[in-house]
Amino acid sequence: MIQARIDEHTVKIELTEGSSLRLDAEGRWGSYRRGPSFFRRTLRDEAWCGSRELDAAERRQLEAWIQETLEHSRQALLAGELPVLGDARDLLDSLEKALALDESVAQRRDLFDQVYAERIPILPPDRYRDLVVLPATGCPNGQCSFCAFYQGVDFRPFSLDEFTTHLDNLARLLGRALAARDGLFLGSANALALPDKKLLPMLELLQDRFGSRPRGLASFYDPEHAPKRSLADWKTLESLGLTQVVLGLETADPALRQSLGKSPDLSLIDQSLAALSQTHIRTGLTLLLGAGPAESGDSQLAQATDYLASLPLGPRDLIYLSPLDSSTWPQPHTAFAPWRKQLRTSTPAQLVHYSMDRFHYYA
After folding, report:
1. Burial level of 315, CB count in 10 A (0-12/13-18/19+)?
2. Are 66 and 32 in contact (CB under 8 A)?
3. Which DSSP helix (H) or strand (E) runs through 247?
4. Distance between CA atoms of residues 234 and 196, nearest Å
5. Do 215 and 299 belong to one domain?
6. In this structure, are strands 29-34 and 20-24 parallel, antiparallel, or unpaired?
7. Which end of the chain is more exposed for a tag (fewer CB within 10 A), N or C?
8. How many C-beta atoms surround the C-beta of residue 95 within 10 A?
9. What range defines the domain where residue 335 resides?
10. What's the pLDDT tens digit per position in 147-197?
C-alpha cells in the first residue's frame, strides 16, 4: 500500500515499508529513501548517499529502483489503489513524464556546467534551497588562507548580456522546477563587490525574469573588497529584493584576522552593520572554530564575546559558527556548544552550526 502527495512544485510517493520518492515539477527525482538508505541528487546530477557519492554501478541500481517505484505507482493509480492528496490527473501526468524522461546524466551535467562555469562550493546553511544566480564568478580577495574554494580564482563580473544568457540557461536547467526555489542567492564569493551602476540593472532584470521570492535575495559580502555603501544605497538594494547579507568576520582577533588574509581593521564591518541595522535586511556573520593555535581558543572566544556585544544585531540576525576541518585544534566541532553558550550572553542573534565542507547543491 502506497500513498502520494502532489502540489504545484513536487510529487512525493511514500511506501509503507519505509521507502519514499520525491520528484520535481519536471519529473526528475530529487530524493529516494529505501529502508535505511537515503539518496539525494544534486543539481549537477550527482547521486549521494550520506557523505558518499555513488559510483556508476550503484547509480544504475538506484535508477532501476526509482523506475520500479514509478511504474508501480502508475499502475496502482490507474487501478484506483493509490490514495492521493491532490489532483490524481496531475499525478498521472507527473508519473508519465518521469517515466518518459530520456535525458542522460551527461546531458544534464553539460547544461549545469554551462550555467555554472564554476561549481557552487558553499552557501549559508539557511540558504541551501536557494537558486544561485551569478552576476560574477570568483572572489575579489582570493587570499584567505583558510578558504579552499576561491584561492587564486580571479574575480570576473559578468556583462549584462552574459547575465541575461545565464538567466536563460538557468530557466532551461530547472524548467518548471525553478518555481520551487523560494529564495535567490547572488554568487559567488562576493557579488556585492560589483558597483551599483553595474549591479542594479542586473537585479532589475532578475526581478523581471524570476519575480520576487518568499525568502528574497541573499548574498555574501566582504566590505574590504566592495564599494562603500551608504544607508540610501542599502535601501535601494532592499527595494530590489535584497533580504539577507552574510559577512565573513571569521575572528574578532585583529592579528589572527590578518594572518588569515583578512584586514585587522574591523571598522568596515562596523560601518556596514550600522547601516544595515537601519534597514529590514537580515545580517549574518561567520565565525571560525579552529583558526589559529588551539591555545588561543579561550582568548578568541572572549574577544568574540566582547565584539558581538558591541554590534547592532537583533534576533533575526545570524552568527554562523563554522568548524575548520584543517584546524590544528583537536576537535573543532566540539567547540560549537561551549561557544554558543558563551556567545548567547552577548548577542540576541541566532547562533547556528555551519559545516562548510559538507555542502552539496541538491536538487
Report:
1. exposed
2. yes
3. strand 242-250
4. 10
5. yes
6. antiparallel
7. N
8. 26
9. 116-358
10. 767 777 789 999 999 999 999 999 999 999 999 999 999 988 999 999 999
